[in-house]
């Protein structure tokens, strides 16, 4: 497994990883209508090029297969953070997170913040984050519970 920065050629795999992970993993914690709104079938990989290029995006590359990805914004916000459904609970997320945290420290950031799903909350807690508050958010007409979490660096 090699953790590296995002390249434009990764966008299609990342879009599929996002879709499949939500449809297969997050469905344990969210309803079918929430999952369908969060990861619709019409996700375009071109959109992911723009999103991932605007942030510091790390990918876990397993010999050409994207096993996970995570995004750091310059203000310390962790945007998307997903591991492929076939790479859950095998250390991929931890490796990506360690790169993100190292970059945040190199940028002299004092904290990291994320909005973690019900599914991702235990992972971020293991990485040292604490819940600031529970919140309700909306996406494509569906209401979701997630958690604003932070970690002081």
TrEMBL record:
Chain ranges of the N-acetyltransferase domain: 1-153
Ranges in coiled-coil conformation: none
InterPro entries found in the cross-reference section: Acyl_CoA_acyltransferase, GNAT_dom, N-acetyltrans/Recomb-assoc
Molecular function (Gene Ontology), one example: acyltransferase activity, transferring groups other than amino-acyl groups
Source organism superkingdom: Bacteria
Protein's recorded name: N-acetyltransferase domain-containing protein
Taxon lineage: Bacteria, Bacillati, Cyanobacteriota, Cyanophyceae, Leptolyngbyales
């Amino acid at each position: 497994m090699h953790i590296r920065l995002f390249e434009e050629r990764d966008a299609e795999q990342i879009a599929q990883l996002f879709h499949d992970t939500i449809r297969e993993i997050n469905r344990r914690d969210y309803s079918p209508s929430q999952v369908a709104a969060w990861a619709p079938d019409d996700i375009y990989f071109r959109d992911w090029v723009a999103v991932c290029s605007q942030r510091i995006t790390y990918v876990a590359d397993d010999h050409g297969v994207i096993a996970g990805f995570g995004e750091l914004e310059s203000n310390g916000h962790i945007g998307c953070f997903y591991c492929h459904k076939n790479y859950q609970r095998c250390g991929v997320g931890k490796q990506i997170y360690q790169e993100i945290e190292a970059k945040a420290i190199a940028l002299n950031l004092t904290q990291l913040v994320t909005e973690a799903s019900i599914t991702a909350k235990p992972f971020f807690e293991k990485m040292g984050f604490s819940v600031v508050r529970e919140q309700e958010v909306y996406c494509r007409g569906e209401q979701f519970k997630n958690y604003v979490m932070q970690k002081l660096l």
